[in-house]
C-alpha cells in the first residue's frame, strides 16, 4: 500500500532517452525502500524517445512517481537542482536513470543523514566493497579516473569518488548551497561539495556500478571538456564563468585549425592572402560547430535555426576581429609593446565574441 503521509525521502533521477529503464527503476526503488516513505522525481530534458510519457503513465498508477519535463533546457546538473528544489522531503538522493546505480545502496546513504551523523553521503565505486566494472570500456575508465584525480586536487574533503553521480544530501544543506551552484555540466556532486563549506559532514559508502542494460552512456570527452571548464571556474573563485572558459578553449582550438588549414592551403599552391582566408573560414566553421556541441550544448541550434545562427556567428566574429585589431593598435600606439598589445586585442576579441554568442546566437 502507498502511504498517504508526506515523503521523507525524494529520489531525483535526471534522465534523457531512458524510456526502457523507467518502469524497472521504479520497481527497484519499491523493493529497496520498503522502510521509507519515498517519492521519485524524474527530470527529463524533453527526450525524443518518450521517457516523459512513460513516467506520466506510471504516475497515474503510483502517486510516488513525479515528472518534471524541461523544454529548451538541457544538462544533468541543472536538472538535479530543479529536481531537488521541487522536493519537500528532508533528505534527497540523486541517482542516474540507467539502472547502473545499485538502488540497494540508497539505505546506506540516507540512514546516516536521517540519524544526524552526516550531511552528505556519497556512493563510492572505489571503497572496499565497491566496483566500477560497469563503465563500458577502457576509454571510459580512463576518463573517469582522470576526472577523479583532477577533482581530488581541488576538494577540501578526502573523497575516493568525487565523480560519483549517486549521493544523498540533507535538504537544508542543499538549500544553503543552491545560490552558489552554477548548474552547468554533468558533475553536480563536485560543485555541491565545493559550495557547502568545510563544516559539512561528508562520508562515503561502497557501491557497485553495474553494466548498462538499455540506452547509451552519457560519459564522453565532451562531458570531460565541460567538467574541466567547471574546475577552472572554481579555481578562479567563481568570477570566470564555466561557459566562458569552455568558449575560450574552443577559440584556442580554432587557432590551431586556422594555422593547420592555412599551411595546407599554402602547400597546395595558394597565395598567402588566399590561404589566410581559407584558414580563417575553417576556424570559424570549427568554432561554431564546437561551440554548438560543447559550449552551448543545452541551447544547441538544429534544423532551420542552424543557418541564421551561423550567419550571426560569422558576423559577430568579423566585428570581433575588427575590435581585436583596433584595441591592439591603440595599446601599441600608447605603450609600444608588441606582445601586450596583441594580448589586449585578443582578450577584447574573445570577450566580444562570447557576448555576441551568448546574447544573439545561442540566446
Automatic annotation (TrEMBL):
Q: Which CDD domains match?
A: DPM1_like
- Membrane topology listed for this record: Multi-pass membrane protein
Kindly indicate whether the keyword Transmembrane belongs to this entry: yes
User: What would be one Pfam family of this protein?
Assistant: GtrA_DPMS_TM
Kindly list the places in or outside the cell where this protein is found, as annotated in its UniProt entry: Membrane
Cellular compartments per GO CC: membrane
Asked whether the keyword Disulfide bond is assigned, the reply is: no
Q: Which domain of life is it from?
A: Bacteria
For this UniProt record, the keywords arranged alphabetically read as follows:
Glycosyltransferase, Membrane, Transferase, Transmembrane, Transmembrane helix
Chief location bin = membrane
**What is a single molecular function from GO for this protein?**
dolichyl-phosphate beta-D-mannosyltransferase activity
Mind listing the GO biological process terms from this record?
Answer: glycolipid biosynthetic process; polysaccharide biosynthetic process
Which InterPro entries does this entry report, sorted A to Z? Answer: DPM1-like (IPR039528), Glyco_trans_2-like (IPR001173), GtrA_DPMS_TM (IPR007267), Nucleotide-diphossugar_trans (IPR029044)
Checking SUPFAM superfamilies in the record gives: Nucleotide-diphospho-sugar transferases (SSF53448)
* Protein family according to the UniProt entry: Belongs to the glycosyltransferase 2 family.
Protein name from the UniProt record: Dolichol monophosphate mannose synthase
Protein source organism? Kozakia baliensis
Amino acid at each position: 500500500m502507498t502511504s498517504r503521509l508526506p515523503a521523507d525521502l525524494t529520489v531525483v533521477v535526471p534522465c534523457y532517452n531512458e524510456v526502457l529503464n523507467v518502469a524497472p527503476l521504479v520497481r527497484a526503488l519499491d523493493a529497496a525502500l520498503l522502510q521509507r516513505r519515498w517519492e521519485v522525481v524524474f527530470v527529463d530534458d524533453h527526450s525524443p524517445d518518450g521517457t516523459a510519457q512513460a513516467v506520466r503513465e506510471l504516475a497515474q498508477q503510483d502517486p510516488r512517481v513525479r515528472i518534471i519535463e524541461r523544454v529548451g533546457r538541457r544538462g544533468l546538473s541543472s536538472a538535479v537542482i530543479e529536481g531537488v528544489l521541487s522536493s519537500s522531503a528532508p533528505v534527497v538522493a540523486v541517482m542516474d536513470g540507467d539502472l547502473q546505480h545499485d538502488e540497494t545502496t540508497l539505505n546506506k546513504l540516507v540512514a546516516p543523514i536521517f540519524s544526524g551523523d552526516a550531511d552528505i553521503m556519497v556512493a563510492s565505486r572505489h571503497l572496499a566493497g565497491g566496483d566500477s566494472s560497469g563503465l563500458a570500456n577502457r576509454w571510459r575508465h580512463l576518463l573517469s579516473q582522470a576526472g577523479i584525480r583532477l577533482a581530488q586536487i581541488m576538494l577540501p574533503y578526502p573523497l575516493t569518488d568525487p565523480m560519483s553521480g549517486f549521493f544523498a544530501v540533507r535538504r537544508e544543506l542543499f538549500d544553503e548551497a543552491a545560490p552558489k551552484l552554477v548548474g552547468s555540466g554533468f558533475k553536480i556532486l563536485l560543485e555541491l561539495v565545493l559550495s557547502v563549506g568545510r563544516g559539512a559532514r561528508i562520508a562515503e559508502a561502497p557501491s557497485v556500478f553495474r553494466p548498462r542494460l538499455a540506452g547509451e552512456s552519457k560519459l564522453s570527452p565532451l562531458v570531460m571538456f565541460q567538467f574541466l571548464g567547471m574546475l577552472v571556474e572554481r579555481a578562479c573563485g567563481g568570477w570566470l564563468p564555466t561557459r566562458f572558459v569552455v568558449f575560450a578553449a574552443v577559440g584556442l582550438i580554432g587557432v590551431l585549425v586556422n594555422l593547420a588549414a592555412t599551411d595546407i592551403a599554402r602547400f597546395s599552391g595558394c597565395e598567402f592572402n588566399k590561404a589566410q582566408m581559407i584558414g580563417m573560414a575553417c576556424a570559424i566553421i570549427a568554432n561554431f560547430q564546437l561551440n554548438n556541441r560543447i559550449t552551448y550544448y543545452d541551447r544547441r541550434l538544429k534544423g532551420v535555426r542552424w543557418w541564421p545562427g551561423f550567419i550571426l556567428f560569422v558576423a559577430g566574429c568579423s566585428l570581433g576581429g575588427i575590435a581585436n585589431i583596433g584595441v591592439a593598435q591603440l595599446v601599441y600606439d600608447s605603450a609600444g609593446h608588441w606582445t601586450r598589445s596583441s594580448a589586449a586585442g585578443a582578450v577584447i576579441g574573445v570577450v566580444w565574441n562570447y557576448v555576441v554568442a551568448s546574447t544573439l546566437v545561442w540566446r
